[in-house]
Write a structure and sequence with these properties.
single chain, Rossmann fold, 316 residues, 8 strands, alpha/beta
Length: 316
C-alpha cells in the first residue's frame, strides 16, 4: 500500500511545515522589500546584497557555530577538526539547510509517501524518525531511494514540535507497528538527532527492544549537548547535558536491560551535538564521520551505506 501519512500524522506534518513556510515567506519577503528599497534609492549593489539575505542569515548563524567548535570541544578526547575541515563542513551545512528547511520540509513534506507495497511481506522495513524542529520531509531523498529499491519504509512526524520527548513514544510505536504488520519483520529504525532519544524513550517505556531489528542514530545527543542550554522548549531542556530527564531515561533503560542493537554515527564537525562523544551511547557500536555537520549527516553517503549494512541479511 502506497500512501501519505495517516490523517493525524498528516495534520501534524502540515502544522510543522506551516511554521517553516511562514519563516521562509517572512525572510524572502523582507529580502525583496529591502532590495526594492535599495533600487529605489539607486543602490543596486545593496539590492543584490539584500536578495542574498535568505541564505546569508542562516549561513552566518552556522558560521558562528562552526567557529566555536574548538572551544565547545572542551576536554573531549576525540581529535579536533581543523579549520579547513570546519570550513568545508560549514559550506555544505549552509547549502543543505536552505534545501531542507526552505524546500523539502516547508513545501515538500508530503512529496515522498510511505512505501508499504503488497509484496512487502517477508522484507525488512525501515522506520525513519526526524529530530528537533523538523518533519518527515527531512527524509525525502531516503524515501525515494528506499522505494526505488523496493524497501518498505515509513517516515513519522514527532509532534507537537516543542513537546516533551516522552510524548513522541506513541508515534514511534505506531510506525514500528505499521511496518511489522506489513512485513512480518522487526524493522530497522533510523533516527536523526532528537529522534534517537524519542526511540530510546519508547524502548525504555515499552520494553519492546525485540520489536526492532536495530537502531541507527545519526547525531543523536545521547548524553545531551551544550547548545541545548540556549533553548527553552520542553524537549530542548531535556537535551541539556546532565538533565534530570536524561538521567531518568538511563535509569529506566538499565532497569529494562535495553536489548535493541544500537549503532551511533557521530562527527567531529557536528555543530549541534557537542562535544562529539555526547552523540555516543555506552555499549553501542560507534561510527565516526569526519568533517560532516549535524544536518549534513543525514545526506552523507556513509550514513546511508551504514543503513544498508544493517538492513542486509547476515552472511551465511
Amino acid at each position: 500500500m502506497e500512501g501519505s501519512p495517516g490523517s493525524d500524522a498528516g495534520r501534524a506534518a502540515a502544522g510543522a511545515a506551516r511554521v517553516q513556510r511562514a519563516l521562509v515567506v517572512l525572510l524572502v519577503g523582507a529580502a525583496l522589500a529591502l532590495a526594492l528599497a535599495a533600487l529605489v534609492a539607486g543602490r543596486p549593489v545593496w539590492a543584490l546584497a539584500a536578495l542574498a539575505l535568505p541564505w546569508a542569515l542562516p549561513a552566518a548563524v552556522l558560521a558562528v557555530e562552526f567557529a566555536l567548535l574548538p572551544w565547545l570541544h572542551g576536554d573531549d578526547p576525540t581529535p579536533r577538526a581543523g579549520a579547513r575541515a570546519r570550513l568545508r563542513a560549514w559550506w555544505r551545512e549552509a547549502a543543505l539547510t536552505m534545501v531542507t528547511f526552505g524546500a523539502w520540509q516547508a513545501f515538500g513534506h508530503r512529496a515522498q509517501p510511505d512505501h508499504l507495497p503488497a509484496q512487502a511481506r517477508g522484507r525488512r522495513g525501515v522506520l525513519l524518525v526526524h529530530g528537533f524542529f523538523c518533519n518527515r520531509g527531512l527524509w525525502n531523498p531516503w524515501l525515494a531511494r528506499l522505494r526505488a529499491a523496493g524497501v518498505p519504509c515509513v517516515a513519522v512526524d514527532l509532534q507537537p514540535v516543542f513537546a516533551g520527548i516522552d510524548d513522541y513514544a506513541a508515534t514511534v510505536a505506531a510506525g514500528v507497528q505499521r511496518l511489522r504488520e506489513a512485513t512480518g519483520e522487526p524493522p530497522l529504525v533510523v533516527a536523526h538527532s532528537m529522534g534517537g532519544l524519542a526511540v530510546r524513550a519508547w524502548l525504555a517505556a515499552s520494553g519492546s527492544g525485540h520489536a526492532v531489528h536495530a537502531v541507527l542514530t545519526l547525531g543523536t545527543p545521547h548524553q545531551g549537548t551544550r547548545l541545548a542550554r540556549f533553548a527553552h522548549s520542553r524537549n530542548a531542556r531535556q537535551m541539556r547535558r546532565g538533565s534530570d530527564w536524561l538521567r531518568a531515561l538511563a535509569a529506566r533503560e538499565a532497569a529494562a536491560s535495553r536489548p535493541a542493537r544500537f549503532v551511533c554515527v557521530w562527527s567531529d564537525c557536528d555543530n549541534i551535538v557537542l562535544p562529539p562523544l555526547t552523540a555516543t551511547l555506552p555499549g553501542a557500536e560507534q561510527r565516526r564521520l569526519a568533517g560532516v555537520g549535524h544536518l549534513t549527516m543525514v545526506y552523507e553517503p556513509a550514513a546511508y551505506a551504514e543503513m544498508q549494512r544493517l538492513l542486509a541479511p547476515p552472511a551465511a
